């Protein structure tokens, strides 16, 4: 049996390490390196020293169209991951650094790369295709990829468990709401639509990302004299809630809103409006709605956001129970008893999803 599994989750600014045991998917040990500079050798080596590890699972943001499921890390798959760096320049090099560091610390232990894009690899053509010139699509492979797939997959599976329903019987909108945020329309266990596209910039308003904007605005701003780097920085790192309220931290924004801060209240309204608009769009892809799932830092710990979304989506049969909503921050059902749509909070556990994918690939 592959047990335990070291899960390496390389983010753009943090490195999360956990050791997951097979018995009940227990977390044996975990640590997070905040303000991570991308150098993984010391962190991984120190964490695994003296511990038994049977396999390593790496979160890799981008698999493109060539890596559509978990793969054993070898020279060929490593080169494939590196070839996609231009599509995820803030994440791919860090994942590669972790792959190399883990190989150095555990040279005889098999490693598996698990991709955030893989859950969306089978998106219908009508969903994945941009209406852009054919050379762009054919030469550069421009299409909608989608992200946060590991989180969306886990959220959908866990929601079915909490409802004691077969996953194949459910139509879900999973909401991964953190600093980065996206929604996914999940039909059974299959992604049929998602809000992020070619890059993680598309879709919802996020902590520092603008989300979807008129592409004509980008052209206009460039013609006004802004540089490409200035536009990129404005949309990626200076946009979103930070641009509207002066903070990208939802906890700070909600605290300011409770104190009557006008900018915070306006930012909250923009955030919820976009979230509800995109959630309704996900139901169009599904044709019906059985479950709404909230996950991620905001999804798990911001009951005000959940309540506002529930109120706005009442016409779809969504109704949040205020008492359950106020007291729930981990796995639990928060919908009203007689609501036609279940509303569930699921703790984001990409580590468990990665460990499960590793075991399926390498054996139980």
Nutshell version of this structure?
The protein is 41% helix and 18% strand. By secondary structure, it is an alpha/beta fold. It has two domains: 5-115, ATPase, nucleotide binding domain (Nucleotidyltransferase, domain 5), CATH 3.30.420; 164-345, ATPase, nucleotide binding domain (Nucleotidyltransferase, domain 5), CATH 3.30.420.40.
CATH class of the largest domain, named Alpha Beta
Q: What is the fold named in CATH at topology level of the largest domain?
A: Nucleotidyltransferase, domain 5
Spatial separation of the terminal alpha carbons? 5 Å
Question: How much strand content do the residues show?
Answer: 15-25%
Main beta sheet, described?
6 strands, mixed
Tell me what the CATH architecture of the largest domain is. 2-Layer Sandwich
Helix content: 40-55%
Domain module count: 2
